[in-house]
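stage 2 :: seqdesign
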């Protein structure tokens, strides 16, 4: 901890001690600078210095009190032929805190009060001390110092407000990014399972009477997918609730391409005819790439199941080379454009896929083709390897 940070921490922990110490120091400095302090002016000088103790709680009121006290003290000293008390330091400190802690209107009022007080001090000085021109020349540095302290407080206030706005903007951006991430993950976790469940339920109803055994297997699959979906949903909710705790809920690993076969088998059981082709060593891809490829395939198959229905033919192709990863999911069963989302859709699925590909510096495309619908992503493969022996 630096000395400045230590002083700030002490000030925060013991504000009254710091206020009292500063008030005493200013009183000693003003007393030392007041040549021949008269009994008439001393009480008013100490009252002005004492007002410094309220610089944080009521800086504008403290400035008014200090200015009035010094003005009265100056007039009283002039009446008995003694020099006016030197209390400029107290005024400067209070002007700084008014600029720092109060609005622009109060700061302007404080500047006016300070200037009037300085003029009053000059008029209250003993006539024999300085000529009128010399008094004016002597006042210029005091006026300049008063303006400088007020402006310094205003500048620091503006800097702090700008920093607060930047922190608020950063917090809003972080919150928006986190909401987008949560929305994308919820969509990937729950949307796919619900589409599979809906398709399985429709198929189960069709074979319920003609093939009870097949219907039983279908409804068992619905139960399995439902339980897995509920488990994932509970995990996400548990994570969100524990976001502010010291020991957040443990996370299960994000899916990678080792679970791709299970994903394709689940969607096949829901009725899609999937041609699966993979070339290259998918499992040596970075985890971020594996998650992106898995989620793209999951979302594309979910869309094919939702819009194409049972019996739709889909070709899933993943090619890994040393330079890039190419993922394509071609829906060959649906009528071109029929029931398919437009490329510019605001739905979470296409947006989520595009965001994942963009985050990895890739190129994403989704749109209708002559045969149906195509989702294609090309992602740079930094440090990846290509192994023809793993093709399938």
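stage 2 :: out
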């Amino acid at each position: 901890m630096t000395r400045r940070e230590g002083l700030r921490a002490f000030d925060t922990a013991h504000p009254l001690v710091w206020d009292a110490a500063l008030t005493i120091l200013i009183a000693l400095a003003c007393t030392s600078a007041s040549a021949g302090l008269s009994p008439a002016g001393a009480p008013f000088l100490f009252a002005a210095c004492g007002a410094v103790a309220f610089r944080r709680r009521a800086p504008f009121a403290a400035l008014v009190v200090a200015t009035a006290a010094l003005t009265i003290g100056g007039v009283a000293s002039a009446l008995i032929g003694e020099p006016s008390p030197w209390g400029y330091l107290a005024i400067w400190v209070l002007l700084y805190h008014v600029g720092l802690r109060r609005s622009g209107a109060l700061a302007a009022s404080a500047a006016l009060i300070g200037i009037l007080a300085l003029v009053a001090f000059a008029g209250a000085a003993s006539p024999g001390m300085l000529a009128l021109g010399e008094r004016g020349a002597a006042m210029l540095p005091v006026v300049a110092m008063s303006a400088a302290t007020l402006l310094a407080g205003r500048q620091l206030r503006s800097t702090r407000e700008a920093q607060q706005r930047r922190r608020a903007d950063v917090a809003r951006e972080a919150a928006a990014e986190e909401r987008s991430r949560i929305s994308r993950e919820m969509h990937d976790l729950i949307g796919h399972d619900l589409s599979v469940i809906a398709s399985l339920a429709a198929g189960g109803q069709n074979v319920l009477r003609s093939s009870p055994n097949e219907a039983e297997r279908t409804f068992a699959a619905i139960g399995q997918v439902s339980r897995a979906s509920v488990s994932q949903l509970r995990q996400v909710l548990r994570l969100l609730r524990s976001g502010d705790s010291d020991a957040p809920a443990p996370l299960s690993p994000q899916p990678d391409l080792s679970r791709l076969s299970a994903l394709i088998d689940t969607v096949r059981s829901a009725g899609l005819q999937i041609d699966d082709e993979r070339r290259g060593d998918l499992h040596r891809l970075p985890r971020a790439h594996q998650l992106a490829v898995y989620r793209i395939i999951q979302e594309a198959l979910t869309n094919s199941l939702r819009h194409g229905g049972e019996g739709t033919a889909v070709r899933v192709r993943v090619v890994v080379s040393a330079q890039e990863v190419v993922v394509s999911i071609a829906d060959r069963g649906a009528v071109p454009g029929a029931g398919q989302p437009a490329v510019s859709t605001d739905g979470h699925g296409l947006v989520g896929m595009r965001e994942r590909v963009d985050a990895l510096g890739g190129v994403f495309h989704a749109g209708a083709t002559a045969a149906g619908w195509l989702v294609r992503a090309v992602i740079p493969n930094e440090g990846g390897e290509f192994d023809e022996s793993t093709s399938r």
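stage 3 :: structure notes
- The beta strands are 273-279, 313-320, 324-331, 363-368, 373-380.
- Confidence is low (pLDDT under 50) at residues 247-251, 334-346, 384-392.
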